[in-house]
Amino acid sequence: MYQKTLTPDSEKFQLKRLRDGDERAFDYFYSHYSLPVYRKLLKMLKVEFVAEEILQTVFIKVWEKRDLIDPEKGMKGYVYQIAQNLVHDFYRKLAREQELQEQVRYAVDEVTEDAGAHLLLKETNELLEMAIEQLPEQQKIVFRLCKQEGKSYDEVSQMLGISTSTINGHIVRATRKIKTFMFKTHHISYGLALPAFLHLIQKNL
């Protein structure tokens, strides 16, 4: 639930915990900033599902780059700057969408002709399933419904009786945990796992 009060001292304390990798501190900042950041993204992007996806990326980056956070400067400016940069990136990529689609189509055509690539995708899919199965039950259910079955946040909200904000929080944390699992496993190398993982996830968006 979004909390209304946030004092400088409490924020500084939580920022130090976040830098040390405390997931409860991450949840603390997500509860304070996810809604206002989402509203800002929606105002800039005008499309709900795009704003939701970028909101997830914002907080994934907050976690991944937590060591760069300066407790003396606070979180607000930091998280809004990440959001703004991602919006700019989105529009730049959108402008190159047709070219990127052609490049991806060409790359996929080449990959699908290679039997070894088929095996890699199969192994990566199995690892993805292993990563999903290790998620907490609620995160697992939400991730499968949204990312694998393609249901909207509103649909899942009605099915499970939880808010769309809670759903987005589950997706953020689930995606971070899955990404960590996939890229830390020794079954396949990072260089090979990355395109295969992104290919599998993208099919479910």
From TrEMBL:
Keywords, ordered alphabetically: Sigma factor, Transcription, Transcription regulation
An example Gene Ontology molecular-function term: sigma factor activity
Domain HTH luxR-type: 150-177
GO BP annotations listed: DNA-templated transcription initiation
Pfam families linked: Sigma70_r2, Sigma70_r4_2
Family matches, as InterPro entries: RNA_pol_sigma-70-like (IPR039425), RNA_pol_sigma-70_dom (IPR014284), RNA_pol_sigma70_r2 (IPR007627), RNA_pol_sigma70_r4_t2 (IPR013249), RNA_pol_sigma_r2 (IPR013325), RNA_pol_sigma_r3/r4-like (IPR013324), Tscrpt_reg_LuxR_C (IPR000792), WH-like_DNA-bd_sf (IPR036388)
Similarity comment: family membership: Belongs to the sigma-70 factor family. ECF subfamily.
Name under which the protein is recorded: RNA polymerase sigma-70 factor
Organism: Pararcticibacter amylolyticus
Upper taxonomic lineage: Bacteria, Pseudomonadati, Bacteroidota, Sphingobacteriia, Sphingobacteriales
